[in-house]
Amino acid sequence: MSVVFRIGEEEPLFHLGEFPVRLITLLVALHSAAMITVSILLATGHGALIDLLAYSSSAVSHGQVWRLVTYAFVSVPSVWFLLEMLMLWYFGKEVENGLGWKRFAILYAGLILIGPMLLQAFGYAGRPQTYSGAQEINFAVFAAFTAMHPGARFFFGVAARWVFLGLLTISSLQLLADHQGPRIVVMLSTCSLAVLLLRKAGFTESLLLDGSFSWKLPWKKSSASGFSVQNGGLSAASRSAKGGTSAETPRDSFNPEQQMDILLEKIARKGIGSLDAAERDTLEKARRAMIKREEGR
């Protein structure tokens, strides 16, 4: 299984007593509270209020721009909603831990906005669109998780990369059969945005095995980025260590955990741009060694 990095765990939004409250917790709580509110409105005969929150390209073109955001929180109670929230919390927690809550907030906000903006273009082209719910958004969070840990094992030992590609294919075929071409565009766009931002953040492992396919980025060779990498977890001991460290060790005594801690401590203190080419190679070598060791268990 892929190495799970958790540097963002030290950055909760706030604490309730001793319990750290993270952004993903608030997002799941917000979706759940919105679902309960929708249920109450439907039960009391106020369904018209819900229509004011769902996305409508015609309504947005007449100035109701709040629909570009509120649509994502219009959901009805169902078993699928429960499973969707469980998946959002599980995979979103890992993505937030890898990026930090601020960058995860940027990612989730972008996923919310990209769908209606694309559908608005269809509306201006003479194909009015309506939309509600966050299915594509939350699936894109799973895409982000897959970009971080494509080798993570799921059902019957199947790697995350194949689970993601399989679900993406089935979902696209289902939407195609329902004549919902614009929704396919939204799903592919949100997943692409999630993967591209994770690539820009420094998670560069191929989505397919043996490097046979990867998402190519024009900025891949550039390390100076506003969406900087935070894909390393440090032990409490290594975080509290003071003084300079060096990544150079003899090749015959290469220790991947030690090298990972040394380099990721440097990243935590100075940023990914502080690593030279040799240190980047050492970090990649250590990461792959740890992945192989984990998969061999």
Description:
- The chain has 297 residues and is mainly alpha-helical.
- It contains twelve helices and four strands, in the order ββααβααααβαααααα.
- It folds into two domains: 7-200, Rhomboid-like fold (Up-down Bundle), CATH 1.20.1540.10; 234-297, no CATH class.
- 58% of the residues lie in helices and 3% in strands.
- The protein has a two-stranded antiparallel sheet. Strands 3-4 form a two-stranded antiparallel ribbon.
- The protein starts with 13 loop residues before the first strand and ends with a helix.
N-C termini distance: 9 Å
Number of H/I helices: 12
- Tell me the strand order in the biggest sheet: 1-2
**Fraction of helical residues:** 55-70%
CATH topology of the largest domain, which one? Answer: Rhomboid-like fold
Shape: globular
Mean pLDDT: 78
Could you name the CATH class of the largest domain? Mainly Alpha
Regions with little confidence, pLDDT below 50 for 5+ residues: 1-10, 210-252
Find the count of extended strands (DSSP E, 2+ residues).
Answer: 4
Oligomer: single chain
- Name the structural class: mainly alpha
Please state the CA-atom Rg, rounded to the nearest Å. Answer: 21 Å
CATH hierarchy: architecture of the largest domain? Up-down Bundle
The amount of beta strand, in percent, is under 5%
The SSE string, one letter per element, is EEHHEHHHHEHHHHHH
Sketch the major β-sheet.
Answer: 2 strands, antiparallel
How many structurally independent domains? 2
CATH superfamily of the largest domain: Rhomboid-like
